[in-house]
Amino acid sequence: MARPVRMPPLGTTADELKIVQWLKAVGETVAQGEPLLEVETDKATLEVEAAVAGTLLAVLHGADEMVAVGEVLGFLGEPGEDVPTEGTSEPRPAAKRQAVPVARKLAQEHGIDLASVEGSGPGGRIEKQDVLALIDAAPVPEDEIEVSRHRQAVAERLTRSIRTIPQFNVAVDVDMSSAAAELARERAAGAAAPTVTHLLLRATAGALREHPEVNRLWVAEGPRLRQLGRADVGLAVAGDDTLLVTTIAEPDLLELAALVELTGRATTEARAGKVSGAPAAVTISNLGMYGVDRFAAIVDPDQTAILAAGAVTERVSAAAGGVRVGPWLELTLTVDHRVVDGVLAARFLAAIRTRLQDF
Question: What is this structure's pTM?
Answer without folding.
Answer: 0.65
